[in-house]
Structures are given as C-alpha cells and as structure tokens.
Amino acid sequence: AKRPTARSVVIAAFHILKNKPIKTKLREGLWIVMPTPESRPTWRQLEQLPYLVSPLFHGVMMRLSLALLWP
User: Fold this and answer.
1) Exposure check for the chain: N or C terminus, fewer CB within 10 A?
2) pTM of structure
C-alpha cells in the first residue's frame, strides 16, 4: 500500500537536512527543548519549533494537493 504522508515526511526531512541554514535553525531550536540527549520534550514544545513543524506540514500539504490534482 502507498503511504503518501510517510513519503512526504521523508522528502521534507531530506530537504531540511540538505539545506544547511534550515538544518542549523532546526538544531538551534532542538537544543532549546532538548539540552541533553536524555531530555524528553513535550509535543507542545516540539510544535513551537517553526523549523520542525513548518517544513513537514508544508511537505505533507504539497504532496496531498498533488495527489488530488493527479490521481
């Protein structure tokens, strides 16, 4: 079975990691909510990280939009 949402997240993650300025901003945000490897941020804290939420959200939305246009 196809998993368009999972694929969208993987593609968005690839582009985040490929883009050094975005990856740097994401790491900076993650250090705030995860100062140590043992830190366990809440969903609420993770949702506040724009460089984590926005690329993933837009990646999924673009993929779903394309799926609707080209069945």
Assistant:
1) N
2) 0.61
